[in-house]
Amino acid sequence: MQIPILKSNLTSEKNPSVNSKISPWLASALYPIGRFIVLPAYFKNIEVIGQEHLPTTGPTILAPTHRSRWDGILVAYATGRHITGRDLRYMVSIDEFKGIAGWLIPRLGGFPIDRKRPGIGSLRHGVELLEAGQMLAIFPEGAIFHDGDLHPLKPGLARLAIQAESLHPNLGVKIVPINVEYQPTVPKWRCQVKITIAPPLEVSHYSLNTPKESGNQLTTDLETALRAISQN
After folding, report:
1. Segment holding 33, helix H or strand E
2. What is the value of pTM for the model shown?
């Protein structure tokens, strides 16, 4: 996912706006169903390690590996309202906005991104969410990989984080590496899941000569952190 760099002016009539919201009644109904009924019924065991590393306030980007369509709900299970008191926002491939999913996703905090041609509107909305101190989930590999290996990260997540921090010095954006591992690798009924959460990376520490250099170094460090927890 290639994300363009924004100028300081985040509004433009040429770029359509992107919005997301969380329906209070829908989230209140579906999250407990998923957490206490659907996930325990499907998975034999869900192990979560490192929840103490999750920020409970402030702009946060969750950076999970992507192994299955279950990942989104499992990340919410490990990090969301029952753990941190926070609801997640998701950057979701525009291909998922179809049928019932296309109706549910925007009402549960998701907003679309075209992975092939990402628009300014999606980036602008991501920055707005961080400005508001929200917790945003972005899968940095950019696609689902069933082989269990960590694939090269796309630069978009780091660029978004650098952009938000540069527009608002001392914003305090944090990136939390998360590894989602299934046993067997391709999840099936009654399989096991291990979710490992690493200490967050402080985006303010990445102030190199150019935004590109800062983003490249942040991407490298995020990949290193993900590899470390995937080998535990």
Report:
1. helix 24-33
2. 0.91
